[in-house]
Design goal:
The protein contains no helices and 11 strands. About 30% of the residues are buried.
Length: about 120
């Protein structure tokens, strides 16, 4: 059974940094894209950053220059390094991956990790 497990959320002051991690486990054949989404209270879930197996990345405009997504293909893990955090970055952050496993190709989601930016 494939699952995604996130870690690294928490409370940080404005201007601070956090690093999120998400590890995929199970009988995985390959992972095409891995990404981070976030959802703030009362708002729709939005794509923050994505990274393909080729290493190609894409970012939400508001996080460009502050967030960096990376992945370790050997560990099936994706990271989100967040710097210069702002109160508007406060949200639940969800890991996403499109995984080819025994049952075929499927979208998988983590349970989410809370990031709170506040003084």
């Amino acid at each position: 059974q494939v699952q995604l497990v996130e870690s690294g959320g928490g409370l940080v002051q404005p201007g601070g940094s956090l690093r999120l991690s998400c590890a995929a486990s199970g009988r995985i054949f390959s992972i095409n894209v891995m990404a981070w989404y976030r959802q703030a209270p009362g708002k729709q879930r939005e794509l923050v950053a994505s990274i393909f197996s080729s290493g190609s990345t894409d970012y939400l405009d508001s996080v460009k220059g502050r967030f960096t997504i990376s992945r370790d293909n050997a560990k099936n893990t994706v990271y989100l390094q967040m710097t210069n955090l702002r109160p508007e970055d406060t949200a639940v952050y969800y890991c996403y991956a499109h995984i080819v496993a025994e049952g075929g190709a499927t979208d998988y989601w983590g349970r989410g990790t809370q990031v709170t930016v506040s003084s």
